[in-house]
Amino acid sequence: MPSLVLGPMLRYVGDDEATIWVETDAPCEVSVLGTRAPTFTVAGHHYALVHCPGLEPGTSTPYEVTLDNERVWPEAGSEFPASVIRTTDGAAPVKLMFGSCRVSAPHSEPYTLRKDEDDAGREVDALRNLALRMRSSPVETWPHSLIMLGDQVYADEVSPKAREEIKARRDTTLPPYETIADFEEYTILYREAWGEPYMRWLLSTVATAMIFDDHDVHDDWNTSLEWITEMRATGWWDRRIVGGFSTYWLYQHLGNLSPAELERNELYCQVSESAADATDVLFEYAFCSDRQIEGVRWSFSRDIGAARLVMVDSRAGRVLDPGARSMVDDDEFAWIEEQVAGDFDHLLIGTSLPLMLAPGMHFLEAWNEQLCDGKWGTPGRLLGERLRQGLDMEHWAAFRASFDRMCHLLEDVATGRRGRAPATVVTLSGDVHHAYLAEVGFPAGTGAQSNVWQATCSPFRNPLDSHERRIIRFATSRAGTLVGKALARTAGVPDPHLRWRFVHDEPWFNNQVATLEIDGRSAHMRLEKTLDDASGAVAPGQDPELRLEQVFEHALA
Q1: What value does the mean pLDDT take over residues 469-484?
Q2: Which of 143, 221, 335, 430 is the most exposed place for a label (fewest CB within 10 A)?
Q3: Can you tell me the distance from the alpha carbon of 27 to that of 145, in angstroms, rounded to the nearest whole number?
């Protein structure tokens, strides 16, 4: 009898349809709510994406999963409530949660300690705590969607259990050592990340939208042309990148697409309809995705209630030519422009890398780009490249032409040049391992009608140590801003077209998760951090399992 290896995962959800993703241990037929789909095979692994049409808008529908007519989900004796599909209903209120950066590690000491207490410490998992709270809360309070903004898995930081499995299959004294080497090891990584009971149930009942960032493949992935040239010269990179793109397509990207988009996706049709193992087809696509930009798009969009979510790939589709760097190529930016035009109450632009950093960090990265482009000659270029890789100076600010282009697009949307101006335009980001909300202002006389924000939440589980936090605090301070701006001016960097400011005193550094609540043309943001077991910091009368504490809230419209 076949069984589930991973899943079910609730992925795309619209007003009247949804998709459910599963991985099984053998070929079989998967059934959900009367809809059936056969599995397809890649490298000996078996997957299915089941389309469930005909759902009622604005409802919660419990579901079961059967494999060859045998029920496998919910599991017998499960401590969790039934998994449900919560459809949206036009302008009805919706709750969206977002964040990024979740490393897999045991939920016990020393992994639950702070990094300052133990190098292995990653503190308490915010998403696990979210599942704990949801387990004892009414369905009506659950989020409709979880927006995962990168580093869903860490290919360069594996759990102890995954490390043992890797050691059992190859010599880890050789590159890439105890990090992920290929497709098979990526499947281990995903099972570790999403197979833990709390996470598995959470992903079975909250729709998810995902985009990758560097650690899904490798730290500093696509930072610069020098970086990628060096990596491609190693003896192990090709297997890593093929495994990374192939598993990303299977485990993350497919579920981002609507059923209509899946029908038009040539690769999905070819792989899912193949009676044979589709490994060669997918691996060739993955390899080409690393070597070329044209014709490959990982960005996607979906409507969630009154909001349009446009998820922008700010990692894999970069143009890295010195002097002509771009976060995305012209074809993809044209696609972005198409997606932000329309009639919706709220526009959410998801990008793993924050469009707007703390001002001090922004100016420092813009200065670094000028060095890398030769503003201070060859010595400056070499210094700039070293800083770019060593200090992760590769956000939108370090791709200034793309930053400027995106800022002008935000202005177009906010002023109604791309259609009726939405109530809010919010860029959602992660990556930087701290959280903040910045209000965006336009030049006088622009006539902006929308409230525009940069909302950043990171990490779910991978906090900074005290030394790293001090660096970030300085970068967000007035002194840090003055230092960054002074350096930028020495390299001829102009002030940005837009202005932005934090609406709070300083960022937050805990494991955390953010919430957007949208009701008509109003919107509200809330940030919650985890409380660790050792702190005992549980509010009077609060269930000790509900270890998420609100630290900030702000009206967006």
Answers
A1: 94
A2: 335
A3: 30
Q: Which two tokens stand for residue 97?
A: 């949660």
Rounded Cα gap, residues 169 and 515, in angstroms: 41
Q: Is residue 544 scored above 60 in pLDDT?
A: no
The pair phi, psi for residue 136, each rounded to 5°, is -110, 20
**pLDDT score of 540:** 45
Is the Cβ–Cβ distance between 21 and 11 less than 8 Å? yes
Q: Is 418 exposed, middle or buried (0-12, 13-18, 19+ CB in 10 A)?
A: buried
Residue where the block lists tokens 């230092």: 483
- Please tell me the distance from the alpha carbon of residue 545 to that of residue 15, in angstroms, as a whole number: 33
Residues 31 and 52: their CA atoms lie apart, in Å, by 10
Q: Check the CA dihedral 184-433-201-59 and report its sign.
A: negative
Write the DSSP assignment of 319-385 as a string of letters: B--TTS-BSS-HHHHHHHHHHH-S--SEEEEEESS-SS--HHHHHHHHHHHHHHTTTTHHHHHHHHH
- The Cα 73–Cα 339 span in angstroms is 36
Give the DSSP letter of residue 250: I
| Cβ neighbours of residue 542 closer than 8 Å, sequence gap 6 or more | none
Does residue 14 sit in helix, strand or coil? coil
Residues forming a β-bridge with 64: none
- Which residues, including other chains, have CB under 8 Å from residue 205's CB and lie 6 or more apart? 10, 81, 83, 84, 86, 134, 142
As given in the structure block, the two tokens for residue 350 are 């998801």
Q: How far is CA 214 from CA 70, 152, 156, 369, 438, in A?
A: 39, 10, 10, 19, 24
Instruction: Report whether 278 contacts 288 (CB < 8 A).
Output: no
Which pLDDT value is given to residue 546?
Answer: 55
- For residue 347, the tally of other CB atoms under 10 A from its CB is 27
Closest of 1, 62, 53 to residue 28, by C-alpha: 1
- The helix (run of H) or strand (run of E) holding residue 8 is strand 4-13
Closest CA to 372 of 363, 360, 384: 384
CB 292 within 8 A of CB 49: no
What residues are paired with 451 via a beta bridge? 424
- Report the pLDDT value the prediction gives residue 91, as an integer from 0 to 100: 77
What percent of the chain lies above the pLDDT cut of 70? 97
CB neighbour burial string for 462-474, b if at least 16 within 10 angstroms, e if fewer: bbbeeeebeebee
DSSP state of 258: -
Q: Classify burial at 127, counting beta carbons within 10 Å of its beta carbon; exposed 0-12, middle 13-18, buried 19 or more.
A: buried
pTM, two decimals, is: 0.96
**Longest Cα pair distance anywhere in the chain, in angstroms?**
69
Reported as a single tens digit per residue, the pLDDT across 484-511 is 999 999 999 999 999 999 999 999 999 9
